[in-house]
Amino acid sequence: GAEAVRAWAVGAAAAVAAAARAVLAALFPSQAGTIQTTYQNFLNDNGLSGNAGIAVGEQAARSHRKRAGFH
To answer: CA 6 to CA 51: how far, in whole Å?
Structure first.
């Protein structure tokens, strides 16, 4: 029901945030600290810290970076 949809949406938000953080930090290494702080604030402000979606997003970012040829 509605709770399952909410859980999916929250996990998706965590996954997107994690993937974005990882890709942005790889593209802009000099801004990695600011990106990390903004990411942590987003997770904390939205109750996403520790969400399982984070691991999904991190894996997606690793796959993207590998295909794109950057680390």
So the answer is: 13
> What pLDDT is attached to residue 71?
59
Give the pTM: 0.83
- Could you tell me the maximum CA-CA distance found in the chain, to the nearest angstrom? 44
How far separated are the first and last CA of the chain, in Å rounded? Answer: 40
DSSP letter for each residue of 2-54: HHHHHHHHHHHHHHHHHHHHHHHHHH-GGGHHHHHHHHHHHHHHTT-TT-THH
DSSP 70: -
CB atoms within 10 A of CB 48: 19
Angle value at C-alpha 49, between 70 and 42, nearest 5 degrees: 70
Three-state DSSP at 69 gives coil
